[in-house]
């Protein structure tokens, strides 16, 4: 079986993720504007979301047999979508989006990661966007960064890594910015002037501080309130704010999906965070929501069978949740592999029927006009994009 | 500007100047100070880490039996989670109290060179044992001993997948054909590429594979502890870099030790590690003269580390590249505590919440989440990796908030300028600090300055 090799990620790891990418000392030199008004938001769901519980394929009779306490369909409170799939009750706030065609999903997707089922390696591969079988020098940074490199006119302001979590998906050679909603710079005007004087002869500190004070003044500091979804809402709001300005790409992550036990409580809270973030994006983006695609991705799915502590363990096939006004929503994408005998991966997991990167690849093709060759050769090196699933409206 | 040795050593090789302790007067005092970084009285052992992990697993097994077992598990699990922060608090307290600081800087350097990540709260104590057992005993010794201790330590075996590696022709693999038992090259590759010879050194994929086969047999699990198990080791001799190890006789740990010793003494290792030390302590692009001076002593002495450090500490490049490096968040926070006259005892006595607020969380916001490096190559070295808008904002915010929350009485910024930066303070900073509107802002300007954030 294929083994994940950490060697593949060294190059990207060397260029620390998050906001710490190469600093755009020369930002003012770039006058060309980004050739698109469309927006892409990638939300990394860290901890392996159980797609079978988030979007329940209750029309497959095996689901209820394999899961006594979880994923139980409309009879037990889930919201029917199309007679086959039902939405977890904690995603109820997103039901109006489904009805308006602004929410969709693809089931049975995965990265090429197989069999080891480690969160760390799984997330590394998801954010690197690579396969296992490539020469080392192809493995540079995260796939959103390589998308930036393929976007003429992109500059630091074009992409934001939002939040305190490192976003390896944006690490790499292309300049981008990072900021957390709860960051602030509460310096008095006098102290700021003095600090500018102190940094004056040190270009790295001078230019970085200028960006920091600018971002801080342009954005409101979000005091993260109380409540399960407060931080996720703050991330969504901040991302929307930047996307309304010059940014076209934003990435952040939502944690807390590792539901080994008592899954009902664990995934319920996590889904509330996800729907809070999506609704904050929609509200914050206003008219721009119509030009926005949100992709919520997780490193792998979970076991199909419920375990002994009313939870699930690390699996393979999972679900991609798509949202945004640019989406052709209100429908399920992808091929359903079935949950019956002989249909599971390694007799335990949902069988992946499509590479999750194909959806992201077709999304960037539609949103930014990125060349197919660039997507297959540099953004997702070695990927066969396959047919267009036509997820964009 | 000519900088005298004590100031230079404190700023570039230690954690900065302090108003309450003197810097090392000369290079002999600097090197004598390394003895302070030996394992302390509270050192964590693998045996202790094993015990804690097993206790956690036992509590996990019975959780949900009743309310009491659930509560007990949660409390213990939380305690294990917090050990990471307790570990950081201890590490910082030692660094704050060390008058020369070089030893603790080297603990940081070598622990990062041999990056490990606990990956799960149950192994947090094992990550601490790694530093106490594999790094601290050897920072003032020979590299080959640290190399062997680090790459055969249980924490490394777990982190780099050695634990799951089986000789394809071992007895265990032959008897259990149904189970997937195979060779894993991860540790062998890092041992050569990251830990010793360096990428680009003349070794081949065959050398990696042969070393991986030689390493089969090394195991750790929390029930049985560390063991060398010949039944999972690949039989026969392995040829690594042209030398045969093992052979007709039963494979043993001594063969592995011999291989590590030979790799450690290779000239490529001398070159790679001399350069890495120079990059960390002197400049991202160190001069070939400095690197060669260190590497030649490395070769002559068989990697006797204090003799290599001596070259580094006495070379003119140390002064010539002042401020070329940005202090990593750990170094910045320790230097900040020292500059404010905060003692190691003050740090140790901080309650958990306050320590998180003053050190642990700010470090994460500055891009250095403790024990959570991106990959086995550890923390980045280049200044751009640490100075980006959000990360710099976190440094400035910490400089503004931490002193007022930690101290009842702030120092006079004009005096602090001298006690923390000595003769190295720049004109711009000396001009600006007295113009601050308050004492707190004056202190914040010093701690946020590029003078202070660089070394």
From TrEMBL, chain A:
Highest taxon, organism lineage: Bacteria
Alphabetical UniProt keywords: Signal
Protein's UniProt keywords contain Signal: yes
InterPro entries the UniProt entry points to: DUF1501 (IPR010869), TAT_signal (IPR006311)
Keyword Signal: yes
Leader sequence residues: 1-22
Membrane-spanning ranges: none
PANTHER family hit by this protein: BLL7424 PROTEIN, DUF1501 DOMAIN-CONTAINING PROTEIN
Annotated protein name in UniProt: DUF1501 domain-containing protein
Species: Paracoccus aurantius
TrEMBL record, chain B:
Name of this chain's protein: DUF1800 domain-containing protein
Lineage, broadest ranks: Bacteria, Pseudomonadati, Pseudomonadota, Alphaproteobacteria, Rhodobacterales
Species, as recorded: Paracoccus aurantius
């Amino acid at each position: 079986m294929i083994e994940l090799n950490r060697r593949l990620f060294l190059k990207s790891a060397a260029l620390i993720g998050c906001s710490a990418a190469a600093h755009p000392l020369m930002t003012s030199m770039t006058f060309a504007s980004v050739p698109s008004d469309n927006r892409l938001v990638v939300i990394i769901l860290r901890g392996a979301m159980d797609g079978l519980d988030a979007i329940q394929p209750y029309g497959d009779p095996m689901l209820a047999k394999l899961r006594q306490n979880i994923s139980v369909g409309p009879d037990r409170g889930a919201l029917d979508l199309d007679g086959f799939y039902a939405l977890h009750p904690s995603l109820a706030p997103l039901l109006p989006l489904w009805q308006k065609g602004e929410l969709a999903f693809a089931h049975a997707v995965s990265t090429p990661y197989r069999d080891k089922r480690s969160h760390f390696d799984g997330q590394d591969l998801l954010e690197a966007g690579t396969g296992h079988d490539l020469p080392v020098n192809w493995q540079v940074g995260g796939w959103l960064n390589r998308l930036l490199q393929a976007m003429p006119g992109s500059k630091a302001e074009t992409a934001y890594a939002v939040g305190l979590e490192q976003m390896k998906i944006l690490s790499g050679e292309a300049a981008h910015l990072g900021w957390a909603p709860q960051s602030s710079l509460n310096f008095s005007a006098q102290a700021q002037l003095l600090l500018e004087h102190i940094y004056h002869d040190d270009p790295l500190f001078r230019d970085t501080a200028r960006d920091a004070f600018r971002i801080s003044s342009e954005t409101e500091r979000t005091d993260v309130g109380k409540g399960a979804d407060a931080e996720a809402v703050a991330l969504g709001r901040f991302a929307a704010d930047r996307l309304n300005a010059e940014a076209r790409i934003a990435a952040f992550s939502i944690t807390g999906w590792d539901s080994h036990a008592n899954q009902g409580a664990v995934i319920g809270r996590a889904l509330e965070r996800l729907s809070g973030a999506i609704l904050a994006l929609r509200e914050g983006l206003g008219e721009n929501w119509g030009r926005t695609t949100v992709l919520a991705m997780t490193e792998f799915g979970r076991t199909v069978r419920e375990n002994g502590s009313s939870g699930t363990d690390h699996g393979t096939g999972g679900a991609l949740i798509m949202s945004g006004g640019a989406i052709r929503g209100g429908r399920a994408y992808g091929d359903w592999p079935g949950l019956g005998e002989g249909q599971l991966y390694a007799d335990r997991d949902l069988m992946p029927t499509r590479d999750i990167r194909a959806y992201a690849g077709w999304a960037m093709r539609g949103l930014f006009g990125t060349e197919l060759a660039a997507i297959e050769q540099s953004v997702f090196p070695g990927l066969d994009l396959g047919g267009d699933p036509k997820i964009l409206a | 500007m000519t900088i005298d040795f004590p100031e230079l050593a404190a700023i570039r090789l230690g954690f900065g100047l302090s108003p309450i302790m003197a810097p090392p007067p000369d290079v002999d005092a600097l090197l004598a100070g390394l003895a302070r970084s030996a394992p302390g009285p509270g050192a964590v052992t693998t045996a202790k880490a094993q015990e804690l992990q097993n206790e956690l697993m036992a509590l996990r097994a019975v959780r949900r039996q009743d309310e009491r077992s659930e509560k007990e598990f949660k409390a213990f699990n939380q305690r294990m989670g917090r050990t990471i922060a307790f570990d950081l608090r201890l590490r910082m307290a030692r660094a704050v109290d060390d008058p020369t600081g070089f030893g603790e800087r080297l603990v940081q350097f070598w622990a990062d060179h041999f990056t490990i990540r606990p990956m799960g709260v149950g192994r947090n104590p094992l990550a601490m044992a790694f530093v106490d057992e594999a790094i601290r005993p050897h920072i003032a010794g020979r590299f080959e001993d640290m190399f062997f201790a680090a790459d055969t330590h249980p924490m490394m075996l777990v982190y780099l997948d050695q634990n799951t590696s089986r000789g394809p022709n071992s007895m265990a693999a032959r008897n259990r054909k149904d189970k997937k038992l195979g060779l894993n090259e991860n540790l062998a590759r890092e041992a050569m590429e990251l830990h010793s010879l360096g990428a680009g050194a003349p070794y081949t994929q065959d050398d990696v594979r042969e070393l991986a086969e030689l390493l089969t047999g090394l195991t750790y699990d929390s029930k049985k502890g560390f063991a060398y198990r010949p039944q999972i080791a690949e039989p026969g001799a392995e040829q690594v870099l042209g030398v045969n190890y093992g052979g007709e006789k039963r494979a043993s740990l001594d063969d592995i030790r011999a291989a590590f010793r030979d790799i450690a003494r290779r000239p490529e290792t001398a070159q790679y590690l001399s350069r890495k030390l120079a990059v960390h302590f002197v400049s991202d692009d160190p001069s070939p003269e400095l690197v060669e001076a260190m590497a030649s002593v490395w070769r002559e002495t068989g990697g006797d580390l204090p003799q290599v450090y001596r070259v580094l500490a006495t070379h003119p490049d140390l002064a010539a590249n002042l401020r070329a490096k940005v202090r990593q968040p750990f170094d910045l926070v320790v230097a900040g505590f020292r500059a404010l006259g905060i003692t190691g005892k003050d740090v140790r006595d901080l309650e958990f919440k306050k320590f998180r607020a003053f050190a642990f969380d700010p470090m994460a916001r500055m891009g250095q989440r403790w024990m959570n490096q991106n990959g086995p190559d550890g923390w980045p070295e280049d200044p751009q990796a640490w100075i980006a808008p959000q990360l710099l904002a976190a440094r400035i915010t910490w400089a503004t908030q931490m002193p007022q929350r930690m101290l009842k009485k702030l120092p006079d910024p004009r005096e602090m300028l001298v006690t923390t930066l000595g003769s190295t303070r720049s004109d711009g900073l000396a001009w600006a600090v007295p113009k601050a509107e308050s004492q707190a802002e004056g202190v914040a300007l010093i701690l946020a300055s590029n003078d202070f954030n660089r070394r």
